[in-house]
Amino acid sequence: MLLEKDNTLTPLKTRLSPDMMEVAHPHMFIGLFTKMVNKKDQNIINLTLATALSSADGFTKSEKIKAFLEYLTFNQALNYLSFIDLNNKTHTDYLKSFDATSFLKASNQALEYFSEEEQYEKCVFIKKIQDFIKG
After folding, report:
1. Residue 1: DSSP 8-state
2. Which residue among 68, 72, 97, 103 is least packed, with the fewest CB closer than 10 Å?
3. Backbone φ, ψ for residue 111 (5° rounding)
4. All structural domains of the chain with their residue ranges
5. DSSP letter (8 states) at residue 13
6. Residue 100 has pLDDT above 90, yes or no
7. How far apart (Å, rounded) are the C-alpha atoms in residues 66 and 72?
8. Which secondary structure element, helix H or strand E, spans residue 25, and what is its range?
9. CA 17 to CA 15: how far, in whole Å?
10. Residue 40: predicted pLDDT
11. In terms of Cα–Cα distance, which of 54, 106, 113 is closest to 133?
C-alpha cells in the first residue's frame, strides 16, 4: 500500500483564521470539492504522463503515481467539503438553493473511491450532504 488509510475526517479548519472563516461561503467549499473531483482525471493523466516521459522507468511507476494522485485529490476535496456545516443556516440555505448537478456527480465519484478504499466514515459524511441536498 502506498499510504496508510486514514478513516477519519481531518478538516483543514484549524489552518484558517477566524477572520477567514467569517467570509468563507459554502459556495467556495462546494465549488472547490466539485472542481477538484470533476477535473481529477485530466490532472492525473497530465501528471502521470509527464512523470512517465521524464524517466526511463517512468511507465512502471505511473500506476503508483496515479494511485497517489487519486488519493491526494479525493482527500483534499473531502477536506474542502468538511467545511460544510449542516447546523449553519447560511450553509443549509445555500445547499437548498444551488444547482447540484455537478456536485452530485463529483460526490458520487468520491463515494465510489472511498468505498473501494473501505473508508466508510468518509462515505457517511458525503452521503449525509448528498441526502440533505436531495431533500
Report:
1. -
2. 97
3. -60, -45
4. 26-134
5. G
6. yes
7. 10
8. none
9. 7
10. 78
11. 106
pLDDT tens-digit map of 3-19: 344 555 554 444 566 66
Long-range contacts of 5-12 (CB under 8 A, 24+ apart): 5/117, 5/118, 5/119, 6/75, 6/119, 7/119, 7/120, 7/121, 7/122, 8/121, 9/78, 9/82, 9/121, 9/122, 9/125, 10/79, 11/79, 11/82, 11/83, 12/79, 12/80, 12/82, 12/83
What number of other Cβ atoms are within 10 A of residue 26's Cβ?
A: 19
pLDDT per residue over 46-65, tens digit each? 666 666 656 655 555 667 77
Residue identified by cell 467539503 is 81
Q: In the structure, what pLDDT confidence band is assigned to residue 121 with cuts at 50, 70 and 90?
A: very high
